[in-house]
Design brief:
Largest sheet: none
Order of helices and strands: HHHHHHHHHHHHHHHHHHHHHHH
Structural class: mainly alpha
Number of strands: 0
Length: 483
């Protein structure tokens, strides 16, 4: 056990040093170096101390990286759709009309509710954040609201909708791994999910009412932003047809990667026709016609694009990095998969989880141990799917021996495995949402209230069940003795 904890202690120590030295830039390379270094330490301990073969580790790492490739492909499409939706005017149109109808006082509540509904309908937190979330970030920034609070509201709503949507991959995965019918799993999750989102929305309302900028400042900033948006982009409600079409295709069951590709393709084709002024702004004077439009679209899809709009805030907003902007995230995922594969191949992950199994006596301890295990896998392996699969597999038998319902296991792994992934900077979810929203994971994590409240709510419900059951048993025993 002590040997197995060495990589975890080193990981936490070196990541802490990286945060101190590099700050927000730690995810652009330092974290990846740390993960590879700790992977080397794990392999060295196992090969030199326990005579394990390198080929064994290589197979596990390659298998883990292979399983992460669908997520990497989706990330490339997310980078493309973020860039094309911005430069085609779709997101600027969202921001323009959003500034007209959304009040700064109620913005955090509105952002959370909108993302909840969209994510519930399409079953994807990643797609919701990459589309509607990016637009809401722009609106919140213009209204003078803290980026951490805005990102926290967006992520809370997106993960709430994803968590209870029958279309969600993680929801289906948690129910299937625990052997629980999908809709029974969703109904059971409502017991913890509804109180968690209600508390989150209440906090967002209170914060919005207490920290709203003055009406004059908000109105002035709103009018300035809208003016510069009109000067830079062609704004039209017809552009809403593209996101509506994307959400409809996902709702009809098309794979997310195909829909994201189609959404990016349609927006890219639109750019030279709907926003012809951007071709010259991006490429320079004289670059017009078919070749100029094609070059402009290619640059937007694959690389960094920036231009002067006359507004400093808007300059930052409209700058995009396309598919290349996702390379750091994919690099991090590959390094995380190597680390997770090494932990699994060495047996260190199994040793730690086996020791946790010994703590599983009684409903509360069993639920709490499962929650902590899901969080541990999210930290150690950097992948939310593993954080659902491994604990569900490991603790299924323990839940059965204690006559605990399978739906309690499925609810626990989703309450703690799915939603905490976005709070870990080097986790694929944390890195992705940080990159898409342009807000460091460590900045938004305290404000993603729903995500850290969900596992606490699960443990609280288990503790309440223990208390009520114990009280009823004592009362029954007392009555029997009296009789």
């Amino acid at each position: 056990m002590l040997i197995s904890l060495i990589p975890i202690v080193l990981l936490i120590a070196l990541l802490s040093v990286s945060i101190y030295l590099f700050g927000d830039a730690m995810l652009s390379g330092p974290s990846q170096v740390v993960l590879i270094l700790i992977t080397g330490v794990i392999c060295a301990i196992s090969i030199l101390g326990y005579k394990r073969k390198w080929s064994f580790f290589e197979d596990f790492m390659i298998g883990n990286i292979g399983s992460s490739m669908p997520a990497c492909l989706i990330l490339f499409m997310v980078g493309a759709i973020c860039a094309t939706w911005m430069q085609s005017g779709i997101i600027p149109t969202m921001i323009y009309y959003g500034l007209s109808v959304i009040s700064a006082r109620w913005f955090l509540l509105t952002a959370c509710v909108i993302c909840s509904l969209v994510s519930l309908c399409i079953g994807s937190s990643w797609t919701t954040i990459a589309t509607v979330g990016v637009g809401l970030m722009g609106i919140g920034h213009t209204l003078g609201i803290s980026d951490g609070w805005v990102a926290g509201a967006i992520i809370s709503g997106a993960y709430f909708g994803d968590k209870i949507s029958p279309l969600s991959e993680t929801t289906n995965l948690a129910s299937s791994m625990a052997g629980v019918p999908l809709f029974e799993h969703i109904r059971n999750m409502m017991k913890t999910t509804v109180p968690s989102i209600f508390i989150s929305l209440t906090v967002f309302v209170v914060v919005g009412l207490l920290s709203t900028p003055s009406a004059e400042v908000t109105m002035d900033a709103t009018e300035q932003m809208q003016t510069h948006l009109l000067e830079t982009f062609t704004i039209s409600p017809l552009l809403f047809l593209v996101p509506i079409g994307v959400f409809y295709l996902i709702y009809k069951g098309l794979p997310a990667i195909i829909v994201l590709f189609l959404g990016a393709l349609v927006a890219a084709v639109m750019i030279p026709f709907v926003q012809p002024q951007l071709v010259e702004a991006i490429l320079g004077a004289g670059k017009l016609g078919f070749t100029g439009g094609l070059e402009c679209v290619m640059r937007i899809v694959f690389g960094e694009v920036s231009y002067e709009t006359g507004n400093v805030g808007l300059n930052d907003l409209v700058g995009t990095s396309g598919m290349s902007g996702m390379l750091s995230t994919i690099w991090l995922i590959i390094c995380s998969m190597c680390f997770g594969g090494a932990m699994e191949a060495s047996g260190m992950l199994g040793t730690i989880t086996e020791s946790l199994l010994k703590m599983m006596r009684g409903r509360f301890k069993t639920v709490a141990t499962t929650c902590l295990s899901c969080l541990f896998v999210n930290v150690a392996a950097g992948d939310q799917y593993l954080a659902i699969i491994l604990p569900a597999k490991m603790y299924g038998e323990a839940f059965g021996k204690q006559h605990l319902e399978k739906k309690l296991l499925s609810r626990t792994v989703e309450d703690s495995g799915t939603v905490t992934s976005v709070l870990i900077p080097w986790n694929s979810c944390g890195m992705t949402q940080s990159t898409v929203l342009g807000v460091s994971t460590l900045v938004y994590a305290p404000f993603a209230i729903f995500c850290w409240l969900s596992p606490l709510m699960t443990m609280m419900f288990a503790a309440m069940h223990n208390f009520i059951t114990s009280h009823l048993n004592n009362t029954t025993s007392s009555h029997q003795q009296t009789a």
